[in-house]
Amino acid sequence: MWYLCVFYHRLLDYRKPEVESLAHLFGAFEDEQNGDVPSQLQWKLPIHHHPDSPFHFVNLPSEQVARSIANRSILVKGMYELWGEGGSYEELKDSVLSYPDERKLPYLEAGSTFKITVDSFGKVMSLNEQKELIQGLAYIPFKGQVKLKNPDHNFWLIEIDNYGRNNGLPPIVQRRIFFGREVGGADRKLIPTYQLKSRTYLGPTAMDAEMAFLMANQALATSGKLIYDPFVGTGSILVGAAHFGALTMGADIDIRVVRDGRGPNCNVWSNFEQYGLPMPVGLLRADNNRPPWRSGLKEIFDAIICDPPYGVRAGGRKSGGRKLLKGAVEPYVVPDDKRTDHIPSTAPYSLVECVHDLLDLAAKMLAMRGRLVFFYPVLRDDDCAETHFPEHPCFKLISSSEQILSSRYSRVLLTMVKVGAYTKEIAEAARLKHLEFRENHVKWLQDGNLHSAVFSPIDAQLPEAGDSKFIKDPKPKYRGKYV
Amino acid sequence: MRLLTHNMLSSNIKGVEKGFPLRIEAEKVVEKPVEMNADFLRKMFEKVEWKAFVEASRSMGYAQLPEEVDSGMLESDEFLSRFHHALLELHLEEGALVCPETGRRFPVNKGIPNMLLHEDEV
């Protein structure tokens, strides 16, 4: 059945993938036996609407599924069973009257409570205007009682018009009015509850609450699942997954972040305690480049969610000293009496090698159909044709969502599903690649060094006559991928 | 560090053939209750290396796990609760994990094992 899905106008690229993932989670694709290929939902745009519009129609198997998706989501403002639509209030009336009675009458019964909300996009309507519109709906036989707080049924009258440009929304060509019964919507109160502003233990790259929930939704986090973050830091991503009931595990190469925090009451554990969430099942200090897992271990995690170090604001580290890997010194043996408190030296970890190791870890340790959800930084180069995302034979990329961070670079949330088993051939190829990275340690640090690309001064060559500001790519006049 | 974590770890020092299971030197063991989730336990049962798990549990002071198991035992609430207790409720707060081949100690402090390898082990 087709539902009207109204999104919040933010994080545009993340909205549909979230609904697709939650559709998987709530069994929208149970009937289809498509094997490896994840199924997709059918979407339609209302007439005259731009793809960035908050309004979309989506086909879902049942109201139960629609409600579950909407209530668990972060970006769906409301999911509605559409009773009518039109370009004018007369057209709307005709449309509502022709909608089958058996779909309407059960929600209009005496003894139930209801409320009608008037929402206009791109313009503010006065209370009087709203009241008039509500009274104009008298042709619908409402028999219930009006109740403004927590009614049984919530009806929405939504008007979108061409209110001119610069109102913060994508352009609408013609007026459209919708009337529908609300089936569910995001619980946005989660955001202030979990916001980083009030988090006990923070780090410079702690994931913001809204994004952590989006990542947990992409990973299908639920009770009974084990979710791993190999770059756990302060645990901000795991907090999101734990909220949805998953059991979590994390590792980090920096022992101070994981073990010590900033004191006995300010560490990763206290972050979970703050929200009454179950503690992570395990936290360890480990190097993703030299993981401590036993060789027979595989397919143990249901999902891996992480934000690897891009090398821009926080650089990654791996084992081995800088000089050691460059070959400037011989491997040295730590004398026995100094072993206990020895802090092993680490070397810079290029993004390419880091992602290679992450994919290798995920290919081995994720259960089949498990999800790998991670951020990948990209330079916003106009000349650059297609962005090449990392690939791996065990994985299928099912979504990529861009979030612009600055004029120089963005980060893209990649969601991959494990579709192939980790074979001996794949293990061998990974081992060889790992050795290749070791041999060419210096080369990998120089190529693809994101830090310098992001922080280098703007090119001295300015565009030609008449234009003293440097040219930016023409931004659409509404808030789009910037948030 | 819980026994679930311990069951996943091995000493991956260069040249070591058999780094699993790590021997536990327990200095401080704490019990922390955790809500039981039967689905999770059943999934983990398939992944756990049982012999190493029983041995590790003993070194943490809990000797109530059966030596031999089969998946039929998952039906028993008694077994599930013992499995749950050993897997998730026993914590090694202070101590060390010792490589069975080289004797190298991986310290465990404040419940966090330090599995980072030294320069000559890499």
From TrEMBL, chain A:
UniProt-annotated location(s): Cytoplasm
Source taxon at top rank: Eukaryota
InterPro entries: DNA_methylase_N6_adenine_CS (IPR002052), RlmKL-like_Mtase (IPR000241), SAM-dependent_MTases_sf (IPR029063), TRMT11 (IPR016691), TRMT11_N (IPR059073)
One Pfam family of this chain: Tmrp11_N
Domain tRNA (guanine(10)-N(2))-methyltransferase TRMT11 N-terminal: from-to ranges: 3-188
UniProt KW Ribonucleoprotein keyword: no
Entry EC no(s): 2.1.1.214
Domain Ribosomal RNA large subunit methyltransferase K/L-like methyltransferase: 198-320
GO biological process, one term: methylation
Record GO cellular component, one term: tRNA methyltransferase complex
Keywords: Cytoplasm, Methyltransferase, RNA-binding, S-adenosyl-L-methionine, Transferase, tRNA processing, tRNA-binding
A molecular function (GO) term: tRNA binding
Family: Belongs to the class I-like SAM-binding methyltransferase superfamily. TRM11 methyltransferase family.
Protein name: tRNA (guanine(10)-N(2))-methyltransferase
Organism of derivation: Arachis hypogaea (Peanut)
TrEMBL record, chain B:
Family recorded in the similarity comment: Belongs to the TRM112 family.
SUPFAM superfamilies hit by this protein: Trm112p-like
Domain of life from the UniProt record: Eukaryota
Lineage of source species: Eukaryota, Viridiplantae, Streptophyta, Embryophyta, Tracheophyta
Organism: Arachis hypogaea
Protein's UniProt name: Multifunctional methyltransferase subunit TRM112-like protein
Pfam families: Trm112p
Single GO biological process annotation from the record: rRNA (guanine-N7)-methylation
UniProt cross-references to InterPro entries, sorted A to Z: Trm112, Trm112-like
Subunit structure: Interacts with TRM9.
GO molecular function: protein heterodimerization activity
